[in-house]
Write a structure and sequence with these properties.
This protein is of the alpha/beta class and about 260 residues long. The chain folds into 2 domains: about 1-115, Rossmann fold; about 130-265, Winged helix-like DNA-binding domain superfamily/Winged helix DNA-binding domain (Arc Repressor Mutant, subunit A), CATH 1.10.10. Helices cover about 45% and strands about 20% of the residues. The chain has 11 helices and 12 strands. The strands form 3 sheets. Strands 2-1-3-4-5 form a 5-stranded parallel β-sheet, with helices on both faces. A 4-stranded mixed β-sheet has the order 8-7-6-12. Helix 1 (about 10-25) packs across helix 5, helix 2 (about 35-45) packs parallel to helix 3 (about 65-75) and helix 6 crosses helix 8 (about 185-205). The longest helix is centred in the C-terminal third of the chain and has 20 residues, at about 185-205. The protein is globular and about 60 Å long. The two termini are about 25 Å apart.
Length: about 260
């Protein structure tokens, strides 16, 4: 389950995300301090969400306006408004919101909303695609190693996994995969070949939807993979215990994420 949380007040956002994680420790929870950042992430990644907890009074784009945009991007996403005021309730329900929580947010209130969603979230089937990031980067499908025809195709997929659904531009990928090489037409052509190769690899496995491609952006859908890194971030004890200080050891660019993991351990 992917849950979004949006509130422009840092303390309120921290409290909201904490209550959500207590209510659904297995969920992927993404926090945003303003509406524009949330919309930019959704539009760039091409990802979807199951539930969005939205503060109503936010500067720039209000929670109501944000909800209207979210309904367009993800019609079956559940919208739950979070506010300290009751006068917005009529507007919220005109948008067919799933629920309405008054601040201060409690774990019980979050649990009640998640148990009574307008669009029930079906349990995700066991992922057939498993990604190992602790130690060397490896990919398995139904327990068997996935063969990538090029080593750089595999590295491309590794970097997209590291990005956790955030979109990457052609320029960004070139700087990572061809470190020190200028961004030329020739290199871009090579990158396009890698992307085609990557998509073909997963199309053969009937997993074509794992790769999200939009204009100049490419990303993975994190909900389509069973990944030790993602489970670590979600607080999964087994994943946390399996981390031994190594993360994608075959790629130097992964050291930044490794540092962040060591701080969380």
């Amino acid at each position: 389950m992917r849950i979004l949380a949006a509130d422009d007040e840092p303390l309120m956002l921290d409290m909201l995300t904490d209550r959500i994680r207590q209510a659904r420790p297995e969920a992927e929870v993404l926090a945003f301090s303003n509406a524009r950042r949330l919309l930019a992430w959704l539009e760039e990644s091409g990802a979807s969400f199951d539930v969005a907890f939205l503060d109503i009074e936010m500067p720039g784009i209000s929670g109501i306006a944000l909800a209207q945009r979210l309904k367009t991007l993800c019609p079956t996403g559940n919208l739950v408004f979070v506010t300290g005021f009751s006068q917005y309730m009529a507007e919220a329900f005109q948008l067919h919101a799933s629920g309405y929580i008054m601040k201060p947010v409690t774990v019980k209130a979050v649990e009640e909303e998640l148990e009574n969603l307008r669009y029930p979230v079906t349990m995700k089937e066991t992922c057939r695609l498993r990604v190992q990031t602790f130690g060397n980067f490896e990919v398995f499908y139904d327990g068997s190693p996935v063969h990538f025809s090029r080593s750089r195709t595999k590295e491309l997929f590794a970097y997209l996994i590291d990005r956790r659904g955030a979109g990457s531009t052609m320029g960004e990928l070139i700087s990572v995969l061809w470190e020190g090489r200028p961004d030329t037409d020739s290199v871009r052509s090579q990158l396009r070949s890698l992307i085609t190769d990557l998509r073909s690899t997963f199309r053969r496995l009937d997993e074509k939807s794992i790769i999200i491609k939009q204009r100049d952006l490419i990303a993975v859908d994190p909900q389509r993979v069973d990944c030790d890194y993602y489970r670590f971030l979600a607080g999964d004890i087994t994943a946390i215990n399996s981390f031994r200080g190594e993360y994608m050891a075959n790629y130097s660019w992964a050291e930044t994420t490794l540092g962040a993991l060591e701080q969380q351990k």
